[in-house]
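Researcher: I need the complex structure. Ligand is adenosine-5'-triphosphate. Inputs:
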Amino acid sequence: MLEARALSCVREDRLLFKDLSFSVDEGQILQIEGPNGVGKTSLFRLLAGLQPAYAGDVFWHDHAIASIREQFYQQLLFLGHYTGVKPELTAFENLRFFQKMHNPTQQQDLWAVLAQVGLAGYEDLLSSQLSAGQQRRVALARLWLSDANIWLLDEPFTAIDKKGVKVLEQLFLKHAARGGRVILTTHQDLQLDNQMFSTLSLRKPAPEQQYV
Ligand SMILES: Nc1ncnc2c1ncn2[C@@H]1O[C@H](COP(=O)(O)OP(=O)(O)OP(=O)(O)O)[C@@H](O)[C@H]1O
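Model: Output:
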C-alpha cells in the first residue's frame, strides 16, 4: 500500500494543501485533478520523496519512504515534466540507455517497444530532431520496460495525440490488472471504464488559510 498520511505542502509561505490523506492499493489507477497551480506537481514531488512535506509523510507498506529509500525507488517509475530524454542520443539509444541502467538483464525487443509507441521508422533519428510529442513518446516507452510497481506520471499525455492516449490508457489498465499502481495527473478526461480507476481533486485552501 502506498499511503499519503495527513500531508501538508507549503511553497514560499503559501499553503497549497493541508491534511491530505489517501492510499493507492495494488491494481489502482488514481488521477489527481485540479486547476493550474493547485499543487499537483508539488504533491508528486512529495510522493516521489524528492521533497519533504511541511507536515505528514508518505508511506510504502507502512514505512516512511525516507527510511526505505532504496527499496522504494526500486518500485517507483517517476515521469515528470522534464522527460530526461537525451537530445544527443537517438530514440533507440535513449531506450537502450534506460534499459541498461534499470533493467540490464531484460531481453525485451526495443524496436518492438518503439513501434508500440508509434516511433517505427524514427528509431535512428537524434531525439533533438523529433517533435515534442515524439520525444514524449520516447520517454513513455520506458513504461513498457518497467518492472516498477508504482508509476507516478505527471501529465503523461502532454503533446500526445488521441491515438497515443488510447494506447497509454490500455497500458495503464494492463499494469493495474497485474497488480501495479498508476498515479497520474492530466487535464484530459480519461476513458477508463474500470472499477480500479478513481480521481482525487485538489482544491485551493480558503483565502484565510493560504498563508502559514
Ligand atoms: N520551485 C518552486 N518554488 C516556489 N514555488 C513554487 C515552485 N514550484 C511551484 N511553486 C508554486 O507552487 C504552486 C503549485 O505549483 P504546482 O506546479 O505544484 O501546481 P500544479 O497543480 O502542478 O500546476 P499545473 O497544472 O499548472 O502543472 C504554484 O503556485 C507555484 O507558483
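Model: Summary of the prediction. The longest strand covers residues 14-24.
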